[in-house]
Design a protein that fits this description.
Low-confidence stretches: 73-86, 113-191, 220-230, 406-421, 556-580, 720-735
Number of helices: 21
Radius of gyration: 28 Å
Shape: globular
Number of strands: 20
Length: 735
């Protein structure tokens, strides 16, 4: 698939942004050669002429004592291939954080120390890193056993050479030492000693936009400070400030701050003679607290990338295609290269009129009743700031962004079944809460009298304010409810699904929805007289959860555990149910769907499926074809629906129904790095149209409507040309 915005872990886009800027920064810092002094004088003069940013800038100094970086040591022992920009943003970019394990992994240095605490007391002192002593006022400062060099402009090439390859001999020596005594590192995943990131330098503005980053490495842990970067902290910090002003990472044109503050007292004193060279005012005292504002967050994605060359907006100016306005390019050369790609059905020439049609749905998808709709459907939506401002920094809310769990948060690791203590606590909405008052009101005493078809109707009955962001989490159970009550009766009336007292549903290729499994409790509130069984299936589920089974019951706050048959937790919904008791059973099968054994389900559902992104779908779709069970899937964009239809045709000879907007889609617009298309979780719904059995003489139901003809020439960059849409042949399916 050409675009993976709705499927890719947002942390990977963030990491690609940091990696691309840091690579350019290190190249600039090591440039200059014999004219090094003149290079820095020229750069300082250039910065003095820059316009002033009214926002306060902050240079953060973040010491690190607990996390190490293992390069080329993933799940398999031995060195892995290098990871360049193509590894993050290439033709087949990784979609999940675990996909980077062959290249880089993060390991806990504390685990290894705890395993052999007594033996490593001496090693910790010889590593050249000591604990950060709190400064006056409580701000920790980065310390090193090595004395700081005299303050001077940065740019010496030996630093870049040391980072690029100077530590290779040290790493080999440390690896040899590990082979002689591997028992000393029982807490670490990889055989080679990890690199120790001693300090992180971070430049941000007061709003949280990241403007620059530098990593100071101490070589391998236990190498007695060889290759330490902390001794060069002052020149490195000065170089970082210069490059952050000349080439801001986050967004905007080159600029200098009105005022700069530093998060380390000693570094603040060392920079007093350097910062004025740039025409920047340094604060009188160092920053004493973590952030100058209570709502300080890191805006995770402000910079975008060219769809072809993957260069970021801090390197080149990006503009959308003048005809479809959907795809971002750095210039006419990349636009023409994408226009003429082969085969034809992957070229922008083929997709341009289709993408233009997708862009026309942006207003419809953003039509939601919430008070915050304008903010969360904007292309510049800052999700982290939105959640932090509402105190949504704990529980399930941390699965929606890159915010870390708040203090006192019950631990529920991603990709695992909920902890037994949480199930037995009696509150099914515990993980849906924020820092403030309860977000979910008590369950209404009477079941719904009608069928809900919009967020407005559901919120009114449930007693939720339209200012509540609970729709972001409840999109999963409400989508299941909409499929059961609306779509199945319309498309498969012979099933008489509304009169069934029990339903067995398979959730295929489960991912984030399994991390949020307790939100499906709301199905018992919406369908009080139906016994539901949800079986989550997929090889992306944690292996240790395979074959787990637990039951949620609504007959009061009492708790019971049945050995050998999973966990049974009786949770209180706040009211006594009228009629017979109905349960919600949760089962887990960590395997591809085509390898699942068991009885035939009543219904199959997949969330944000992306058929073209996993080869297992080429086996799972034929399995569904053989079962001929109603199967509904959601996608985050119309583009994904078209690609799913093509994959279904290749895998089974069938197709998909025309996609329709999901009234219970998430209101949060998803980030897109290389395009401007509207992406929303569970934005569209379609069902599979199976190929008729041989000899039946029936023809499959029609798929998506035919698309407009493909233009023959690339659009002119100077103006946007509009053409009248005419019916034409359908898109050729790629084999």
């Amino acid at each position: 698939m050409e675009f993976v915005s709705g499927y890719r872990d947002e942390f990977l886009d963030f990491a690609a942004l940091l990696f691309g800027w840091f690579r350019k920064f290190t190249a600039k810092r090591g440039a200059g050669g014999a004219s090094l002094e003149g290079h820095w004088r020229q750069l300082e003069a250039q910065i003095r002429r820059l316009p002033q940013d009214p926002a306060l800038w902050v240079l953060h100094v973040l010491p690190n004592h607990s996390v190490g970086i293992s390069l080329g040591q993933g799940a398999e022992p031995g060195p892995g291939p290098g990871l360049g920009v193509a590894g993050f943003l290439g033709d087949e970019p990784p979609l999940q954080l675990r996909d980077l394990s062959p290249y880089v992994s993060f390991v806990s240095l504390e685990e290894g120390e705890e395993a052999e605490e007594e033996e490593e007391k001496g090693d910790k002192e010889s590593a050249g890193v000591v604990k950060a002593d709190p400064e006056e006022g409580g701000e920790p400062a980065a310390r090193s056993r090595e004395p700081r060099q005299e303050a001077k402009p940065a740019g010496q090439t030996e630093e870049a050479e040391q980072e690029a390859g100077g530590g290779e001999d040290d790493r080999r020596a440390d690896k040899a030492g590990d082979e002689a005594g591997p028992e000393r590192r029982k807490g670490w995943r990889s055989e080679a000693a990890p690199l120790h990131l001693s300090c992180l330098l971070l430049v941000t503005d007061e709003h949280g936009t990241i403007l620059g980053i530098d990593l100071l490495m101490d070589g391998t842990q236990g190498s007695a400070g060889k290759g330490s970067g902390t001794e060069n902290l002052v020149p490195r910090a000065y170089a970082l400030l210069c490059h952050s002003m000349a080439c801001p990472m986050g967004s905007g044109d080159p600029r200098k701050p009105r005022q700069l503050t530093v998060g380390d007292a000693q570094l603040h004193r060392d920079l007093e003679s350097l910062v004025p060279r740039l025409g920047v005012k340094l604060a009188k005292t160092p920053m004493r607290t973590w952030g100058p504002r209570p709502g300080f967050t890191f805006a995770s994605l402000r910079a975008r990338t060219c769809h072809v060359c993957h260069r970021h907006s801090f390197e080149v100016k990006l503009t959308p295609c003048p005809q479809c306005s959907a795809v971002l390019y750095c210039g006419e050369a990349c636009l023409r290269a994408d226009w003429r790609r082969c085969p034809d059905d992957v070229s922008h020439r083929f997709w341009c009129p289709r993408l233009a049609g997708f862009m026309e749905r942006a207003g419809e998808l953003a039509s939601l009743p919430f008070s915050y709709t304008a903010e969360v459907t904007s292309e510049t939506f800052n999700k982290e700031a939105f959640l932090a401002s509402r105190g949504l920094t704990r529980g399930y809310w941390t699965h929606l962004s890159m915010l870390i769990p708040g203090p006192g948060t019950p631990r529920h690791p991603r990709g695992s079944t909920p902890a037994l203590s949480l199930l037995l606590g009696g509150d099914p909405y515990q993980l849906l809460q924020g820092d403030g008052p309860a977000l979910m009101p008590p369950v209404p005493p009477d079941p719904p009298r009608g069928i809900f078809g919009s967020w407005q109707d559901y919120y009114t009955w449930r007693g939720l304010s339209l200012d509540s962001p609970m729709a972001v989490l409840l999109t999963y159970p409400l989508t299941v409810y909409y499929i059961i009550t609306h779509l199945v009766p319309q498309s498969f009336p012979e099933l008489n699904i509304q009169n069934k007292q029990s339903l067995k549903i398979h959730v295929v290729e489960a991912g984030k929805e399994f991390d949020l499994v307790m939100v499906f409790w709301e199905l018992l509130v919406l369908l009080p007289h139906v016994a539901l069984e949800l079986q989550f299936v997929g090889d992306g589920l944690p292996p240790d959860s395979d074959q787990q089974h637990f039951t949620l019951q609504r007959d009061g706050p009492e708790v019971s555990v049945r050995p050998g048959s999973g966990v049974s937790a009786r949770l209180s919904s706040g009211t006594k149910e009228k009629g017979g008791r109905r349960d919600l059973q949760i089962k887990v099968s960590a395997r591809p769907y085509h390898l699942l054994q068991g009885p035939k389900p009543d219904l199959v559902i997949g969330f944000n499926s992306g058929f073209g992104l996993k080869d297992t779908w080429l086996s799972s779709l034929p399995r569904l074809q053989s079962l001929r069970v109603p199967a509904f899937f959601t996608e985050s964009s119309e583009y994904g629906c078209v690609m799913d239809d093509q994959t279904m045709a290749v895998a089974t000879g069938g197709g998909t129904s025309p996609p329709r907007p999901n009234p219970f889609r998430s209101p949060f617009r998803l980030r897109a790095a290389d395009n401007c298309m509207p992406w929303y979780c569970n934005a569209f719904i379609f069902h599979l149209v199976y190929k008729p059995p041989q000899g039946s003489g029936a023809r499959p139901a029609p798929g998506p409507a035919p698309q407009v003809p493909t233009p023959t020439a690339p659009p002119a960059p100077a103006r946007r040309r509009r053409r009248e849409k005419k019916p034409g042949r359908g898109a050729r399916r790629r084999r």
